[in-house]
């Protein structure tokens, strides 16, 4: 009998390693330079709300997603802070943020689908 290759486990492990490399890379080359740039002009409002382990995730989302369409009176200050981060980001920082988001979301979707398919006994 020929050994079976579990492509989904290999893909999951590849995405996990990619995320483990992307997170500190984005923290070092995206979050810190943008924070430094915004602190020079006293516009770094996002760091006041979000604490250390989650700052990289919030800065990644602020760089990638434009939240201005969801602006309301209740969340106006959060959306304004996200827009300042988005304007301060360079194209390289956008690509690094996309790398972290794709590897994290891909790993989560693949892991959840593997668990769900295993639960309903598809394989």
What does this structure look like?
The chain has 123 residues and is an all-alpha fold. It has one domain (3-120). The chain has five helices and no strands. It has helices at 7-40, 46-49, 52-64, 76-88, 91-119. Helix 3 crosses helix 4. The protein is elongated and about 60 Å long. The relative contact order is 0.16. The model has no long low-confidence stretch (mean pLDDT 83).
Class by helix and strand content? Answer: mainly alpha
On the 0 to 100 scale, the average pLDDT is 83
**How many domain modules?**
1
Broad shape: elongated
Unreliable segments of 5+ consecutive residues: none
Strand content: under 5%
| C-alpha termini separation | 18 Å
User: How big is the Rg?
Assistant: 18 Å
Main sheet record = none
**Helix content class:** over 70%
**Number of beta strands:** 0
The total count of helices amounts to 5
State the order of secondary-structure elements, H for helix, E for strand.
HHHHH
Keywords: Membrane, Transmembrane, Transmembrane helix
Transmembrane segments: 6-31, 92-117
Features:
123 residues; mainly alpha; 5 helices; 0% strand; transmembrane helix; membrane; transmembrane
Write a short abstract of this structure.
Keywords: Membrane, Transmembrane, Transmembrane helix. With 123 residues, the chain is mainly α.
């Amino acid at each position: 009998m020929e050994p079976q290759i579990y492509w989904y486990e290999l893909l999951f492990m590849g995405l996990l390693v990619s995320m483990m490399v992307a997170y500190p890379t984005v923290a070092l080359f995206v979050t810190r330079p943008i924070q430094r740039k915004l602190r020079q002009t006293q516009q770094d409002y996002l760091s006041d709300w979000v604490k250390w382990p989650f700052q990289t995730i919030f800065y990644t989302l602020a760089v990638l997603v434009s939240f201005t369409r969801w602006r309301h009176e209740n969340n106006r200050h959060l959306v304004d802070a996200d827009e300042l981060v988005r304007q301060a980001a360079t194209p390289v920082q956008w690509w690094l943020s996309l790398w972290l988001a794709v590897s994290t979301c891909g790993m989560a979707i693949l892991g959840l689908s593997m668990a769900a398919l295993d639960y309903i006994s598809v394989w």
